Amino acid sequence: MPATRSTLLRRGLAAVAALPLLTLAACGYGSEAKDEPAAQKVAAGAEKIDGLDSVKIGYFGNLTHGTALVGVNKGYFQKALGATKASYQIFNAGPSEIEALNSGSIDIGWIGPSPAINGYTKSAGKNLRIVGGSASGGVKLVVNPAKIKSLKDVKGKRIATPQLGNTQDVALLNWISEQGWKVDAESGKGDVSVIRTDNKVTPDAYKSGSIDGAWVPEPTASKLVAEGAEVLLDESDLWPDKKFVITNIIVSQKFLEEHPKAVEAVLKASVDINKYINANPDEAKAAANAQLKVDSGKELPAAVLDPAWKSIQFTDDPLAATLNSEAEHAVKAGLLEDPLLDGIYDLAPLNKVLQAAGEPTVDDAGLGVK
Fold it and tell me: 290-345: per-residue pLDDT in tens?
């Protein structure tokens, strides 16, 4: 990607990143600290990693963060960290997780591509690194079949996204542009009405008729289908090899520099978790759902869980080229000025783990630290 001067987000996206007004790809704004499940036990004779008392891990209570959900539920992180305590914080919005990373409230976290890009550019490349991938896919355009029967019928309709400038919002705006339609990105007004709606209330908005469809991640998409909506478009069909990043692993640059062994331990756990998920999809799905119940008090019904889980691919590859494309889509939509993303990735620790496991290494698409 051509190097240009690092810039600030435009007014609308900057407001999103700075203020707790809306939510990113999950429920409400904020976070909640959680104690480890009883199943997590420190092995006898285990030693601390890098002399640390704890490693603070953040994630969303969202199926696209399934690697983290399964890892917490099955005790993978605690096992990898030995006698160093694995502690967890659950987030409902990207800006709050970035804020927590910046303040040291968490050390490492699972997060979507847009908040990672926004956090990196707003700090002029000084706060975070993407150190691994986690998931691809799990995003769909679902619509009211009585109102929208084909892609061309989307014109003139009201389509929800989770938040102004979030990953799904950018994807919808880019798709609208490719149809030759016009929408003002900040207001959402134009040939399609883009309605920024909290995922927590999107199903109710659909049932009330205030929206005609939504471009949303799982499990919201499958929740709408359970209410009678139909999948009109799977976003994976728009990408080469049907793969695009939906969840990354980020780490504080300070923590990465000071505690590389701890970062490697968490990444080893992540690689082991993804291997388990892909080899045991049904058991992993059940573990993720069990952790959702622990974190939120409510599990997903099978009619929502099964199709949602099936549409998500869990991968160690951060799919860096697609993150670069997502940044370009945000620029094209007018939500982001050309960002300097050079150095956003440091995949050396992950590739070390992958090599040790006999797995192929992954690429940073030229956006790694030099």
Answer: 999 999 899 999 999 999 999 999 999 999 999 999 999 999 988 888 888 999 99
pLDDT digits (tens, 9 = 90+) for 65-97: 999 999 999 999 999 999 999 999 999 888 899
- pLDDT per residue as tens digits for the range 233-285: 999 999 999 999 999 999 999 999 999 999 999 999 999 999 999 999 999 99
* SS3 labels along the chain: CCCCCCCCECHHHHHHHHCCCCCCCCCCCCEEEECCCCCCCCCCCCCECCCCCEEEEEEECCHHHHHHHHHHHHCHHHHHHECCEEEEEEECCHHHHHHHHHHCCCCEEEECHHHHHHHHHHCCCCCEEEEEEEEEECEEEEECCCCCCCHHHHCCCEEEECCCCCHHHHHHHHHHHHCCCCECCCCCCECCEEEECCCCCHHHHHHHCCCCEEEEECCHHHHHHHCCCEEEEEHHHHCHHHCCEEEEEEEEHHHHHHCHHHHHHHHHHHHHHHHHHHHCHHHHHHHHHHHHHHHHCCCCCHHHHHHHHHCEEECCCCCHHHHHHHHHHHHHHCCECCCCCCCCECCHHHHHHHHHCCCCCCCCCCCECC
